[in-house]
C-alpha cells in the first residue's frame, strides 16, 4: 500500500447527480483519486464493508474502476461487487446495493451526456438504501475534497473484469457479478410477465432503442429472451464507450430515428428508449409521444394493474418542475403528492419512510420503491404491463387519462452552454424582482404568485433553498426557471412551461402552439433572448 501526497482541486462540488466533468478534466493528475479518497474519508467505518462499483461503460469507465478498486483495497474495504465488464446501469447498481446489503456504491456515469475521449464522465456515491447520497453527505464529501492532502492505493496489476467470479486485491475480495441477473429477477417479481408474453404472442410489437448505452444487455435479456419479443426489437443494443458518437439522451431530438418510426405508417405498437446509464425513459405509441409528466401520472393511476403494486400506492412524489398531472391522480386516489427539488436524491427519504411508492421527474425519470434511483426499463415494463392488462393503445390510454383528469400541456426549453455569468445574473435579477411580479398582466395571463422554491424535507427536516424561480398564473399555468446542475460547459438555463386544460374539446392542440403565449411571456419577463443572444432554445422537449 502506498500513501500518495496530493493537493486539492477547487472544483469538486457534486451537482444534481454527482461530480460531472469532461474526460480530460478527470484525467488530470490525482483528480479522480482525490474525489474517491474524499468519499472514503467521509464514510466512517469502511473496514471489512462491502461496496458496489459499476458504470455505464463510457470512456474512462474501465480505468476509473481499476483505480477505485485499488484505492478501496488500500482503504480497508472488505469486498467490492463489480458488474462484469465494469457495467451496471444506475438502477441495477441501486438494486445490487440493496439486495446484497452493501454499505453503498460508486456509480460511474454522466447519464445522457455524450461520451468518448472528449466527452463527459461522472462519479457519484450511493448510500446503503441504494439511492444517491443526500445533500448532507455530498456537502461533507465536497468539504473533504477542499482539504485533501493524500490518498491511499495498493500497487497491483489491473484485474480482468471480463470474467465472472472472485479475485483478490491485497486483502480485499473483488467479485465480478452478472450485471443483469439481479435486476431481471427483481423485474420478474414486480410485473406480470405471463400477461406481457401473451400480449407479445398476440402480435403486439415494439422497438426499444438502447442508444448504444448500458441498457442494451438488460433490454435484450428481458424483452427478447424473456418476454418473447422477436430478435431485433432492441436496437443499438451494444454498449459503446462513445455511444456510437451520439448523445444517449432519450428525447425527441436525440432519439430521432425511433420518433420518426413511431410517426410513420410502419410504426409498431410501442416505442421506448433509455439513456446512457439506464435511468431515464422515453415512451411513444403509434403517432404519439407521452410526456414524462403525463407518463408519471398515467403510471401512478394504473400501477395497481401490476402485481408489485396490486395493493395500491402509498403516495406520489414529483420534482417541482414536473407538471401537476400526477397531483390530480394522487388526489383522486386519496394519497399524498409531494413536490421536491430536481434530482432523485430528494425522493430517498420519502421512499424509505414509505410515504410514496412512485416518483418522477419531467426529465424522463420515473421510478418506484423497488430501488432508490429512477429506472428506465422499469417504466417501460410497467407500461407494457398496463398495455397488456388494458388491451388499449398508448394513444387511447393517454386520451382517456386527459378526459378523466384534464391535460397539462407541457414543454421544456433548454438554452445550453450559455455564458455562466449571464445565466447567474438572469437568475439573480429574477430573484430580485420576485416581489414586483405578482399582479402583472400579460394578455389573458395574470401572475398570481412568484417565488423561489424552497424544499423542507418532511422526513428529516433539512431545507434546500433556491431550487427554481416559479411564476404561477391565475389560471393555473406556470413558468419555471432554473439552472442545470449537470452541465459541463458554461451554464444551461431550463425553462419549464405548463398549462392546464380541463376541457376535452380543447385537449388536442399541438403542444408548442398551445404554449406559445406563455413561452413569449417567459422570454419577456426574464429577457432570455436579449441576455443570451440566442434566438431559440437548443433543445425543446
Ligand atoms: C437533470 C434533470 C434532472 C435529473 C438529473 C440527473 O438535472 O433535469 O431531473 O435528475 O439531470 O439525471 P439538471 O440539474 O441538469 O436539470 V441523469 O439521467 O443523471 O441521470
Ligand atoms: Co441518466
Task: Give the bound compounds.
Answer: alpha-D-glucose-1-phosphate-6-vanadate, cobalt (II) ion
The CATH class of the largest domain turns out to be Alpha Beta
By CATH, the architecture of the largest domain is named 3-Layer(aba) Sandwich
User: Could you report the average pLDDT, rounded to the nearest whole number?
Assistant: 96
Using only CA atoms, what is the Rg?
A: 23 Å
Q: Which fold name fills CATH's third level, the topology of the largest domain? A: Alpha-D-Glucose-1,6-Bisphosphate, Chain A, domain 3
Q: Find the structural class using helix and strand composition.
A: alpha/beta
Number of helices: 17
Sheet having the most strands: 7 strands, mixed
Write the SSE topology.
Layout lengths: L1 E4 L13 E4 H4 L4 H12 L7 E6 L5 H14 L4 E9 L2 H10 L4 E5 L11 E7 L8 H11 L4 E4 L11 E5 L2 E6 L3 H10 L2 H9 L4 E4 L5 H10 L9 E2 L20 H8 L6 E5 L6 E5 L2 E3 L1 H11 L13 E4 L5 H9 L3 E4 L7 H5 L5 E4 L3 E4 L7 H15 L3 H12 L1 E12 L1 H18 L3 E2 L2 E8 L2 E2 L6 E2 L4 E5 L4 E6 L7 E11 L9 H16 L1 H5 L6 E2 L1
Parallel strand pairs: 3-4, 3-5, 4-9, 10-11, 10-12, 15-16, 15-17
Antiparallel strand pairs: 1-7, 2-6, 5-6, 8-9, 12-13, 13-14, 17-18, 19-26, 19-27, 20-21, 21-24, 22-23, 24-25, 25-26
This protein binds alpha-D-glucose-1-phosphate-6-vanadate (VG1) and cobalt (II) ion.
